[in-house]
Write a structure and sequence with these properties.
The complex is a heterodimer of chains A (276) and B (167). Chain A is of the alpha+beta class and 276 residues long. Helix content of chain A is 36%, strand content 32%. Chain A has a 6-stranded antiparallel beta barrel. The radius of gyration of chain A is 24 Å and the shape is elongated. Chain B is mostly helical and 167 residues long. Chain B has helices at 5-22, 39-42, 50-68, 73-91, 106-134, 140-164. In chain B, helix 3 packs antiparallel against helix 4. The chains are: A alpha+beta (276), B mainly alpha (167). The A-B interface holds A 12-14, 16-17, 20-21, 23-32, 34-35, 38-39, 42 and B 50-51, 54-55, 57-58, 61, 70-73, 75-76, 79-80, 82-83, 86, 132, 135-136.
């Protein structure tokens, strides 16, 4: 105690200086928007560079597994093309994507930071504003939905993960088409909850849950997961436990989804007269 | 201590007012901002306690910040400058030390001494201030030249003030 006092007395000038300077800088960062953004951007860039390096090493060690995943994804895409081409032949019901041009475009990105163990999980990606990434774009992987872009700096972006209780994704049952909001419960990184499914919907374990395409972020039909179990909530709706198809613990290659027409859709929807 | 307290309060008020009302509106070629309010820290007596120096500096900086809506900016630069003052005074100390009843002024220690003393501290203050203001390193040399030229301008103003106003 005495030593501490002597130390404080001896260095009181320097300590007071550090204290006051820290206070001044803190006030500066809190109250001045410009300096604050500069600081946040710097921090994000430093963070991004750091994680990018460490991820590079980790990715090399997982090449074999990645290859396997890519092969599987290729296979799935080939099948998708095959079925789609067939569907295209029965003409005018599917005009949306063909005659009016492409509605969604994809940009591949690498996950350089990720977490699954918090209540609000975020993902950092190695593509940023200079690559055309903007907030509110969707993020998917070969296996399914991953999240939504939230913040963007020059070379990096942060996405709010599906494993974040603040993110709600509009999802539907692929068989019957009943839809509702899907939300992470914060307990287990493998499961999320789909709410508002009416009681008269027929459900069974293993049903596929996909994106509804109503939100202008994700295209319709991106896989989210499978029905694990369901129970009645409040007498009117089912609450469905969904096993997520994306393995968030092993996320590394993802695609950023840009909806070319999202602005148009949002504008139109915002112009509707409020009915409540 | 007690008899020069009113004078320093007056100096404080006059310098802040001159800075805020007059000099903050001076922007030569959009480039040079003289900041003469640091004269207050420069002219504090030798025997001012070091902790008081820092506290006065943050109060002075905050006062300027209040008028320019830049909370913390001038405060951090002024505290930095005040931190350097004791060490600088020690290294510039004449052989027989600082005399009693004297002040850090041209009259007591000569123009060369004051030029060094004020020059270094003003430069430190301006460099800190301009870099905190821009808050990134991408415009390094542009900021450097702004800081240097502004510091020179402030130094000239402060020397003129000291020459014409006898304390």
């Amino acid at each position: 105690m005495q030593n501490l006092l002597r130390f404080l007395l001896k260095y009181h000038f320097t300590l007071l200086f550090v204290l006051l300077e820290a206070l001044a800088i803190l006030l500066l960062l809190q109250n001045n928007n410009y300096q604050n953004t500069q600081f946040v951007e710097l921090a994000r860039n430093v963070q991004g560079t750091f994680y990018e390096q460490s991820m590079r090493v980790e990715q090399y060690l997982r090449l074999r597994e990645k290859n396997q995943q890519l092969v599987e994804e290729n296979e799935r895409l080939r099948n998708y093309i095959a079925t789609n081409l067939r569907a295209e032949r029965d003409t005018f019901r599917r005009r949306v994507d063909t005659t009016y041009g492409q509605q969604y475009s994809y940009l591949s990105a690498r996950v350089i930071n990720n977490s699954v163990n918090k209540q609000h999980n975020f993902i950092t990606l190695d593509k940023g504003e200079e690559d055309g990434v903007a907030p509110e774009m969707g993020v998917i992987s070969g296996q399914g939905v991953v999240g939504v872009i939230r913040g963007v700096s020059d070379h990096f972006s942060t996405a709010i993960s599906l494993l974040n209780s603040e993110l709600r994704v509009s999802a539907k049952l692929s068989g019957t088409g009943y839809y509702g909001p899907l939300n992470w419960t914060g307990r287990d990184y493998r499961y999320a909850t789909l709410a508002d499914i009416p009681l008269h919907a027929t459900l069974s374990r293993g049903d596929t849950v996909i994106t509804s395409g109503y939100s202008a972020i994700f295209p319709e039909g991106i896989s989210i997961g499978f029905v694990e179990s369901y129970e009645e909530k409040g007498g009117r709706f089912y609450e469905v436990d969904v096993e997520l198809s994306t393995n968030f613990k092993r996320l590394s290659n993802v695609y950023i989804v840009k909806n070319v027409l999202s602005e148009e859709q949002n504008q139109l929807e915002n112009n509707l007269p409020a009915d409540d | 201590m007690i008899n020069y307290l009113p004078r320093y309060i007056l100096t404080f008020v006059i310098l802040v007012l001159a800075q805020v009302l007059l000099l903050n509106n001076v922007q030569l070629s959009g480039y040079l901002n003289p900041y003469i309010y640091v004269l207050f820290i420069l002219s504090l007596p030798f025997e001012t306690p070091k902790w008081a120096l820092l506290l006065l500096a943050i109060v002075l900086g905050m006062t300027i910040d209040l008028f320019t809506h830049t909370v913390g900016m001038h405060a951090s630069a002024t505290v930095f400058m005040a931190f350097l003052r004791p060490a600088l005074l020690r290294s510039l100390e004449p052989r027989d030390g600082y005399q009693l009843e004297t002040y850090p002024s041209i009259r007591d220690y000569g123009l060369t001494w004051y030029f060094q003393y004020a020059g270094i501290l003003i430069l430190a203050h301006h460099l800190f201030l301009f870099y905190v203001e821009i808050f990134k390193l991408s415009l390094f040399f542009q900021t450097l030249s702004r800081a240097l030229l502004s510091a020179l301008f402030s130094l000239i103003l402060i020397l003129l003030i000291k020459l014409f106003i006898k304390k």
